[in-house]
Recover the amino acids of this structure.
């Protein structure tokens, strides 16, 4: 099969999902081995319990975005990082395809899954300001409108990985590879190996589920969203490439939307990497500058933009 930029990006997102799961597990293991956390307040040392979910979204996003820069389409990432902790607002990842679509993800750490209600409980809530920016009117650049789609990228370990039915050991190999600093760019290989599902073979439909995607709640938004239904989420690497979006509606218990799925308000159309030439470097820089102006009013922030 032909592996284009959309497939490379989907594969890189799959690798990032393993990397996030490993980061969260390492943090949780360290927290269990540490009795207290020491901080300083008003000149006094303060001790408190160390929660496994207290890791910052910024630190995990850096690891996830590095996987996209490294394993995704060549020359497709534009990164800006400056004082992100103080000014995070609106989005952490934007994907620009060639049909003038702009998909934006806001990262959130999942504290736990409430098994009674089957909901993600977020470490920090999604504010009304975030919801507004992710739901608002199209983004205009160079006289052209790009339709915005807002999603949440949920960092979690409550849902277990999904292994291919016949080759589960392959998933274990990828879990190790995602954390290796000396592996080459492997987005295309991951897509073929874990997502392509050649001839519908379920052995190649797998996911770490370290990053789950979910639609942003519609407007008017509540003051703060702290819970989201698990049933309306899916592994974030699916729904990127048409080749991996129409294979199946379920991924071993993980709901997987495709272009025809509308149940529960979900409708995710795969990205387009073929209709127009990719922007050149100067155009990409101008696009990112305009996007930051709309989202952040030129305040320092952190954003990765991937151009297909």
């Amino acid at each position: 099969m032909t592996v284009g930029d959309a497939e490379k990006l989907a594969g890189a997102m799959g690798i990032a999902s393993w990397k996030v799961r490993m980061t969260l597990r390492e943090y949780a293991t360290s927290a269990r081995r540490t009795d207290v956390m020491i901080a300083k307040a008003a000149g006094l040392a303060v001790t408190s319990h160390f929660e496994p979910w207290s890791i910052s979204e910024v630190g995990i996003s850096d690891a996830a975005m590095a996987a996209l820069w490294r394993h995704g389409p060549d020359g497709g990432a534009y990164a800006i990082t400056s004082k992100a902790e103080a000014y995070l607002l609106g989005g952490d990842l934007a994907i620009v395809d060639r049909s003038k679509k702009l998909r934006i993800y806001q990262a959130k750490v999942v504290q736990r899954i409430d098994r009674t209600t089957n909901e993600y409980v977020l470490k920090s809530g999604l504010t009304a300001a975030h919801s507004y920016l992710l739901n608002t009117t199209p983004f205009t650049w160079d006289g052209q409108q790009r339709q915005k789609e807002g999603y949440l990228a949920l960092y979690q370990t409550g849902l277990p990985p999904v292994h291919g039915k016949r080759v589960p050991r392959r998933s274990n190999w990828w879990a190790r590879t995602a954390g290796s600093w000396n592996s080459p760019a492997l987005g295309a290989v991951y897509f073929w190996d874990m997502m392509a599902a050649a001839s519908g073979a379920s052995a190649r439909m797998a996911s770490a589920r370290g990053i789950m995607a979910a639609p942003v709640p519609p407007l008017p938004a509540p003051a703060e969203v702290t819970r989201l239904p698990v049933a309306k989420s899916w592994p974030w690497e699916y729904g990127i490439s048409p080749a991996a979006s129409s294979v199946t509606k379920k991924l071993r218990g993980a709901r997987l939307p495709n272009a025809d799925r509308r149940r529960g308000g979900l409708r995710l159309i795969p990205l387009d990497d073929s209709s127009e030439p990719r922007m050149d470097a100067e155009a990409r820089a101008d696009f990112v500058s305009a996007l930051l102006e709309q989202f952040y009013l030129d305040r320092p922030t952190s954003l990765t933009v991937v151009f297909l």
User: Anything to note?
Assistant: The two ends are 18 Å apart (CA to CA). The first strand starts at residue 37 and ends at 41. The longest helix spans residues 5-32.
